[in-house]
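Notes to self after the Tuesday call (sharing in case useful).
The group wants a holo model before anyone commits to mutagenesis around the pocket. I volunteered. Ligand is alpha-D-galactopyranose. Logging inputs and output together so the record is complete.
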Amino acid sequence: MAGGGRQRSGGRRAPLAALLLLLLLLALVAWPAGGLDNGLARTPPMGWLHWERFLCQTDCAQEPRNCISEQLFMQMADLMASDGWRDVGYQYLCIDDCWMAPTRDKQGRLQPDPDRFPSGISKLADYVHSKGLKLGIYADAGNETCAGFPGSYGYYELDADTFAGWGVDLVKFDGCNVGTLELLAEGYKNMSWALNKTGRSIVYSCEWPLYQRPLQKPNYTEIKQYCNYWRNYFDITDAWTSVKNILDWTSSHQDSIVDIAGPGGWNDPDMLVIGDFGLSCDQQVTQMALWAMMAAPLLMSNDLRRISPRAKALLQNKEVIAINQDPLGKQGYRITKDGNFELWERPLSGGAFAIAVLNRQDFGGPQMFAFSTAFLGSGLACNPTCSIQQILPTSRDLGLHSWVSFLKVAVNPTGTVLLKTVVIEEKLVINNGSSHSPDPL
Ligand code: GLA
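Result:
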């Protein structure tokens, strides 16, 4: 009897289960492709973003060279194409806040400031595209941008359509002046859907977790469904303290942010300030090395018209860029902190690893750090043997090592030595206990 009962009710459940399955399939088909599924940012985006270096300078009468204007972006586009930036991967030329006119036009559309962008964004996009580059623009999920220009709240579709119509390729969406956490989430999701609906390939950059975190733990699985990369921590400034704070925040939250990063969705520790005023040469090496370790978007905020050959060579270092852009797309993490030293690793494709040794001591001379290759890649990076290449601060071959080799590197104060290990299957000649002298900078 009981069995018969189960059978009967099971019989009623069958169409119900089929219906649920159908609904699930429909939901999956109807689910709009978010950041993760838009096919973009399969490696961390690279480019230039005006904010840290040029901020909200709108006074072109006083500051004609440095104000936020189409001229500034056209000059940067010229240099990105002519000075090798584009050719090593810096592709997105991005406008940040303060490009807009103070009000929307009669149709409710965002419009650029007419004095500073007299030709319009569409023409600027054409110009940028003619240089083989892509154009990024900025908007905000709330009522106003952080600098007080019109926000996109209530206008998500119209703004997405406007950007797509202009030929924009990337949107940085800020989260200032949003009333509640619900509106914040809705704003980020709605803009993602709206961009997707335009049918244009537009990289979507978010600051959702940064604004959410003080009140609520971010759900990174959800964020990655909507965004191609996202800011977690405060704005970078042109200062070593700022770079250190970002690194400390990242390593202390690595358990919750590292695994989610991958092709299509990246943690964004903010712009590169290499080539500006605040970082020493060693600190610039540290920023470049650690941004490569963190699989960070590489968005420079500097003046390409005035950049030292040394900063340029560092930013254009192809071996470091290759680590940043590694197709495996795994973010690196800190494996140990030993006194003033931090040891970081990043798994790369083909069983290789990037290794960074950071010396946090900010006085004295170069310090030696010794470590066993057995620590690296949970013992696999150099097993049974590997070759080790030093990439920063200078490129050199450190030879072959076994999985129990000890490596010693000298690291300048606040500097970083960046290495790459490549595993070799056969047992080969081993360079045990090698020691390497400091690199002059
Ligand atoms: C916020 C963002 C910055 C920048 C400014 C512009 O502070 O975090 O990256 O976009 O707004 O006002």
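Two things stood out.
The pocket of alpha-D-galactopyranose is lined by residues 51, 96-97, 145-147, 174, 207, 235 (CB under 6 Å).
DSSP finds 14 helices and 17 strands in the chain.
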